[in-house]
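Researcher: Re-running this chain for the archive, since the previous output was lost when a drive failed. Same request as before.
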Amino acid sequence: MFRAYTNRGKGWETLQSWWILLTLFPLGVASFLSFLYIGLRVKNWRWIIYGLVYLGGAIAVFATSEGVSAIIAITLWIVSIIHAIKVRSAFLIQLDVYKSGEKSREQQRIDRLRQEAQAKFQPSSFPSPTQLKPPAPKIKTEPNMRSFTGNDASPNESQQTEANPLHPANTSNTSHASDDSATKLSSSGNGRRVDV
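Model: Regenerated structure tokens:
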């Protein structure tokens, strides 16, 4: 009766074509169900829209007068049967491809869920017991450390002094004449200004 369109065999194809029987109900009132089924089964929006059109036709059959409804019903019935037989091959091929990729889609879904879970509950995001310990205090053990007094400056400080126009060493004495009498360098020699 039908030729084989997939490698799964005629038995599988016949079993997957049961939806055509819905178009054979009298006056095609269940034709919309067959197209909604195949459209949803393989995620084909065109067939879902056809199913909605056939649903509209079935509603029109019951909403119109007897003479017009008979013409609509017979036309809908014949068209839906021919349409179902015509799209059967495309449906079987799409279903075969959909079923073939089902395992890989499932694996991709599982991988995506695993990545989301790892991002949410990743072990490195929780502090380990060693990370919760406070850091050990730093002890200065450098023997070459010089103590600076007065206006002595380390090489780094002298470079910062030359580069910084707002540093007290780079400002003119006239602009801060009143400031010099009120402030002096501290005796510790750390370069901080102290009000006297």
